[in-house]
Fold this protein.
Amino acid sequence: MRRKLAAGNWKMNGLRADLAELENLPQDQGVDVLICLPTTLIPAARDLPLAIGGQDCHAATHGAHTGDISAPMLVDAGATYVLTGHSERRSDHGETDADVAAKSKAAHETGLITIICIGETLAIRAAGTTLDIIDGQLAKSVPDCATAENTLIAYEPVWAIGTGKVPSTDQIAEVHAHIHARLAERFSDGADFGILYGGSVKSSNAAEIFAVPHVTGALVGGASLKAADFAPIVTALAAS
Ligand code: PEP
């Protein structure tokens, strides 16, 4: 079983001077710490004592895809993880579940650990079809080559990302138990996949979220930019 993971996502934020924030994060607490950086910052961060990830990769290894980054390029830069299917990639770039599966497969073939992001919109939550949408995303975004070693799932309700709104712990528990059960049905090691929660995680709510069954860590956006905000989340995960 994979260790618990506190993962940060800097999105399109950060210049080289901001990497100093990563020098002040707690180490050796028995949990893995990852920051998914803008690609420009990965080479400068590769020797820091934490894992470094990209935020997206192309499904092809190389070719005529101006502005894109391939999985081998991320590895070459120093990444060991990559996010795929983040809701901002799905909404800003029209990425489909099939695109996410193809990117994740390419990442696996290059040796990257993939964090595949799924989650419902507020309209889906209001319609009461969240678990149906989660089923579809799991079936179509997670490739057959996924294993507990090369894949984590991040459950990120779209309406909770960057909004300060957080589902109740009962709502998180329901979805995480569902994801855990679906993975266990499909993959021989499915019960061992890490399942992160993401969406407005902060130091003030981290402990209660980490106490929810089948939550094995967090994917954190805004609160990962400053060590003062992210360090208590890492510490809360280590204490959970
Ligand atoms: C995210 O970027 O995946 C995220 C969860 O952002 P935030 O923590 O800011 O809601």
